[in-house]
Design goal:
seven-stranded mixed β-sheet; Rossmann fold; alpha/beta; single chain; 2 domains; 18 helices; Arc Repressor Mutant, subunit A; about 10% strand
């Protein structure tokens, strides 16, 4: 096939550069599938390896999937995946990547952590995609490392593993630990690993085959950059928001925020009203409440502790702000009660709230959903 010949010629020319992997070496990558892992993240990690082999006409990589006993594992979308085998022979893999997904805390067992620790003692390269880094952290294998995780678990992971430097980056390569957030972020991470092993030209060729416009790097973050909301000509507004996000536990006074960017308080307030349709203090409050909601759903921190780590001076004040913003008190949020959010309906007319419906109503760590002007006026 002509394309295969061209790909082989391309690779031979490309290898005039100096890769980090010896010529002729085949690397083996194992994927540990946890219960309710995300198929999209797994595919994003595996497909670049397949394409590397296809474009070069060589077996640069082999990969296989496994579970503790080799039994089928259900993905988060309900699709059962039968792995290639059990984890009884991990020595066949040079690198092991943990594929996480929904409900990661309950998916990890003592068996998992013990097995991962044994791999670390063998100096294996270890990674995680989506929420897989949680498993590595639980095993104590990310202490002193920087890592990435899906944005839904950023706050919870920061609280649960204080020795781990949890980053908002799409992916993180820190020595022999490779972690990424979810969705297509594993694709970017694997392309960088392939570039490290076999050269940048191959990684670029793979991205072109996937019609992937740009290979993102470790400086790309999961949240939509504010510049896409306010434009590229508002660096001071972007800087103030970044300061807010970095100081949720001990909020910075508005006058000090304005002083940091050489603006008056009134100028800063005008910027927020013009581009974000709210006051700086209201925006700051929402950031803290969104973080509180994440911690409330994903950790066992008490309401008192949550109020403290999210910068509230008292628990009653926190509860009041939380209910005003989300329509339910924090205690009910944790218990899963939805009764205070919607009117009572007859059993025959109740329509179950689907996961998609819930997602549409869910604020994210990445983006603060703005209230309508009327709502702003009513909340002050």
């Amino acid at each position: 096939m002509a394309d295969a010949c061209v790909a082989t010629d391309f690779y031979e020319a490309m290898m005039s550069s100096t890769p980090s992997v010896a010529d002729g070496t085949t690397q083996s990558v194992g994927f540990l599938l946890l219960d309710k892992f995300t198929l999209m993240s797994l595919a994003s990690a595996v497909e670049p390896l397949r394409m590397a082999n296809q474009l070069t006409g060589r077996t640069l990589y082999r990969w296989h999937t496994f579970s503790p006993n080799g039994a089928a594992v259900w993905a988060s979308d309900g699709v059962p995946i039968t792995p290639d085998g059990s984890w009884s022979n991990p020595s066949v893999a040079d690198t092991v990547i943990v594929c996480g997904g929904v409900g990661i805390q309950s998916a990890i067992t003592r068996e998992h952590t013990t097995w991962l620790q044994a791999l670390a003692r063998q100096s294996k390269r270890l990674g995680g995609v989506c929420t897989g880094s949680w498993a590595l952290a639980k095993a104590g294998l990310l202490d002193g490392y920087e890592c990435s995780v899906h944005w839904e678990f950023l706050a919870a992971m920061q609280e649960a593993f204080p020795r781990v430097n949890v980053s908002t980056s799409l992916f993180t390569l820190d020595r022999n630990r490779f972690t990424s957030s979810g969705g297509t972020a594993p694709l970017d991470m694997m392309l960088h690993l392939i570039a490290r092993d076999h050269g940048r030209e191959l990684a670029t060729a793979i991205s072109e085959m996937f019609v992937y416009e740009r290979i993102r790097n470790e400086q790309d973050h999961q949240r939509v950059p504010l510049k896409h909301v306010v434009g590229t000509h508002q660096p001071k507004l972007q800087e103030v928001v970044a300061l807010m996000e970095a100081n949720l536990e001990e909020p910075i006074d508005l006058d000090n925020l304005a002083e940091y960017v050489d603006l008056s308080r009134r100028q800063l307030e005008r910027l927020f009203q013009k581009y974000l349709q709210c006051t700086p203090s209201r925006y700051y409050l929402r950031l803290r409440l969104i973080r509180a909601r994440q911690l409330l759903k994903q950790t066992s921190l008490s309401i008192v502790e949550l109020a403290y780590v999210c910068g509230f001076v008292s628990t009653p004040h926190f509860s009041k702000c939380y209910r005003e913003h989300f329509g339910v008190p924090p205690s009910d949020e944790r218990s899963g009660s939805e009764m205070s959010r919607k009117p009572v309906a007859q059993p025959s007319t109740i329509k179950p709230l689907t996961t998609l419906d819930q997602a549409r109503n869910e604020s994210t760590f990445a983006s603060v959903r703005m209230m309508e002007r009327g709502d702003l006026a009513s909340t002050g």
